[in-house]
Structures are given as structure tokens and as C-alpha cells.
Amino acid sequence: MFIDLDRFKHINDSLGHDVGDGLLQEVAGRLSNNLRASDTVARIGGDEFVILLSHADEPEAYAALAQKLMTALAEPMRIAGHAIQVGASVGIACFPEDGAGVVALMKHADAAMYAAKSAGRGTYRFFQAAMTEKAEQRLRLEMELRRAAKNGELKLFYQPRVALVGGTVVGLEALVRWRHPQHGLVLPADFIPLAEETGIIGELGDWVLEEACRQSRDWRLRGLATRIAVNVSAKQLQSGNLAERIAELARQYGTAPADLEIELTESVIMANPEQVSGTFAELRRQGVSVAVDDFGTGYSSLAYLRRLPLDVLKIDRSFVSNADRDEGDGEIVRTIVALGQALGLSVVAEGVETESQAAFLRACGCPAGQGYLYSRPQPAAAIEDWLRAQPGMDNPGAMKCVTA
Ligand code: C2E
Ligand code: CA
Ligand code: CA
């Protein structure tokens, strides 16, 4: 059995390594207490434990044991004055069906554990042949993704942000795409999570920032003044030098910092408000604005929302899509707009698809929107044509992107 603790890294990072060590000891004790003397428990790395069961049994017995172990681990622990609760994911491989030797059994129990984790944590899985295939696919994708930036396979698409009254373009959001040599255009949902798990996001995110800076400068030189909003992931923020890096890129490409905006999701911001606060202040000092993405889906502290240096709230698409038909969602949208106004923040509604949604948003006083109603995300050249085709845009030099 391969056992991996859920969210151990988070505990280690937030409460410190002493608490992490204490937790691992407690876990080891609980595992041993629930096994027979003839079984072996080993910690093989970080928060990974392997159990060797030497009595051949029916699969049901293994399943019951996995459940028992998970229940034992889920009991709250008291470590150095902290009440801590961890879950675990368990993968099971059986001899001899799933492997004749140590290497194969370990690899397959690991694949099963990984499947348990993807199934939503706090659960167990038996190994199935299809799992290694999936693991291999993932590994292949990881290798390809590592090369994607170097091979010029990444592209930025842009989606306009539009003033709901008057229809002026108030900015663009950069959305990354991967032109995979075999699979064609891959959407971020299919590679950003993998990039985050594997750390590739550092390099990928940096490429996105650099390309946005380059594009912004290029457009400005050709008379298109635009503000480009770039999505930034938690890992990039934690790297600690995001503000410096942006300043450096802006200098290198001659990009006006006021032409740049950073989008971070509400959950990433609220997971570490004290830490992000310094970075945001530094970004704004440089003239870069900061947007809260997917607002309404996380747990915002209003105190932090008021204190954090922010510029924009982006109402999550899930509320916008039914706002004109569902009273509850409509009320949420109205409240977020009012909240934004009260805090002096600009508000952008995401995922506006119909004229009826736009009308509802206008009635709420929401200043800006973004969505298929105006334009899908498009490659730079296509969005440029789109921008120039906007009413009042026949003189490209006249185009002005005001703040959303
Ligand atoms: P997001 O930041 O919330 O971006 C908005 C997503 O909604 C985009 O999906 C966009 O294409 C889609 N969208 C816009 N208008 C509409 C609409 O009217 N209807 C519908 N149904 N969808 C609409 P996309 O491009 O697939 O990006 C998905 C997510 O991937 C983004 O969500 C963002 O979290 C992430 N992402 C994209 N580019 C980057 C990047 O460069 N770096 C990082 N870290 N994440 C990125
Ligand atoms: Ca976004
Ligand atoms: Ca969003």
C-alpha cells in the first residue's frame, strides 16, 4: 500500500517544519498501531509511506484495512499546541497479479495512489493496468510541456474587456494556448494544472509575462494603446520576485507599467493575504494594477479586501451566466458591484455571452464586461483587426484604452 498525506505540504509551509516532523511521527504511530506485527511500515520520502502486508488476503480485506488506516489518520491530532487534521490517499497493488517484484509493485501502488488522489483525496484505489498508461501519458505530456516554451509552441490569445456603456475597449486579457505539434490547440485547463504541479509554471508564466510585455510595446508603437491583463498563478507569486521580474521585463521591452495588470484568483489571494499584500503594494507603486480573478468563488475576508492594495474585481462567470434569469445569482452580481463601488474598485463581469446579461449588468451599474458577446479570445493579429474595426477606430492612433 502506498500512502500519501493530503495537504501535508500546506501544513509544513504554514506551521513550520517542527510541526511537520511531529505530524509525521504521529502518522507513523497511528499506522503501526493499526497493523499486525508481521507487517512493515516505511516512510520512503516526504509524506509518503509504504506498507508491506505479508499475509495474502482477499481484496475486500485490503480495502477494509485501507479504510481503517484513513479513518485513523483523519482523527484530529494535537501537535505543538496546534489542532491538525490530515487526510490520506491510498494506492494498493497485489502480488503477484500486479507485479512480480518490488519495482513493479511499488510503481503500480504509486500509480493507484495517484489515481486515488485525482479521484478527490481521502480515498483508496486498487491498481489497474490503465493507470500506468495514464501515468505514462502524463509523463509524456510533462516532457513535451517542458519543451513547449523553448520550441515556440506557446501562444497568447487576447480577449477584450469592454465598457458596458458605450462599448469602448478598456483592456485585453492575455490567455495562454499551447499549439501542440500533434494534438493541435490545447486549452489552459489541460496543461496549467500539470504545469503548476510540476513547477513548469515558473518558466511558462515567465514566458507569458515576457510575451505580454513585448506585445504591449509592439502595439503601442503602432498606435494601439492597450492595457494587457496577465494571469499569474500561486507559484509565481510565491517565487517572491514577481514585482521585480515585471519591472525588469517592462524596462527591457520599454513597456509602460500602466499598460500591465496582474490577475490572481480570489482563493490564491485569500490563502495568503499578508504575503501578497507586499507584492501588490510594490506592483502598484510601479504603476501595474492588480485584479482579483474569479471573485465570488472563494472565501474573501472583507477586512482584507478593504486593506489589500487592489484595483479590479472580476465577477466569476458562474454568477454572470445566470444573473439575468436566476434571482439568487442576480442578487450576488448586484452585491459584488456594490461592494466594488464601496471599496473604490473597478468591477468587470466575466463570461458575458448574451445581450440580456449585458443589459442586466448595465442595470446593476457594472462598468465593464468581457465575454463571447464581444469577442472570443483570439490571436494577436486577429484581435488587432478586431480592435481596428471597432467604431471610432478608423484612426488607430485615436484608440485609447481607459482604465476599466
Ligand atoms: P480565467 O482567467 O477565468 O479566464 C477566463 C476564461 O473564460 C478563459 O478560458 C476564456 O476563454 C473563457 N471565457 C471568456 N469569455 C467567455 C464566455 O463568454 N463564455 C465562456 N463559456 N467562457 C468564456 P481559457 O482561455 O480556457 O482559460 C482558462 C483558465 O486558464 C483561465 O481562467 C486562467 O485561470 C487560466 N489561464 C489562462 N492563461 C493563463 C496564463 O497565462 N497563466 C496562468 N497561470 N493561467 C492561465
Ligand atoms: Ca483571468
Ligand atoms: Ca476568471
Write a compact overview of the structure shown.
With 404 residues, the protein is α/β, with parallel strands linked by helices. It contains 16 helices and 17 strands.
Keywords for this entry:
binds ligand C2E; 17 strands; alpha/beta; Alpha-Beta Plaits; TIM Barrel; five-stranded mixed beta sheet; 404 residues; eight-stranded mixed beta barrel; 2 domains; disordered C terminus
How would you describe this protein?
This protein has helices at 8-15, 17-33, 59-74, 102-118, 129-148, 192-198, 201-221, 234-238, 242-253, 266-271, 273-286, 302-307, 317-320, 327-342, 355-364, 380-388; strands at 2-6, 40-45, 48-52, 77-79, 82-84, 87-92, 124-126, 154-163, 169-180, 184-186, 228-231, 260-265, 289-295, 312-315, 346-349, 368-369, 378-379. The protein has 404 residues and is α/β, with parallel strands linked by helices. It has two domains: 2-127, Alpha-Beta Plaits; 142-398, TIM Barrel. The strands form three sheets. It has an eight-stranded mixed barrel, surrounded by four helices. A five-stranded mixed beta sheet has the order 2-3-1-6-7. Strands 4-5 form a two-stranded antiparallel ribbon. The protein is elongated. The structure holds ligand C2E and calcium ion (2 copies). One calcium ion is lined by residues 173, 231, 263, 293.
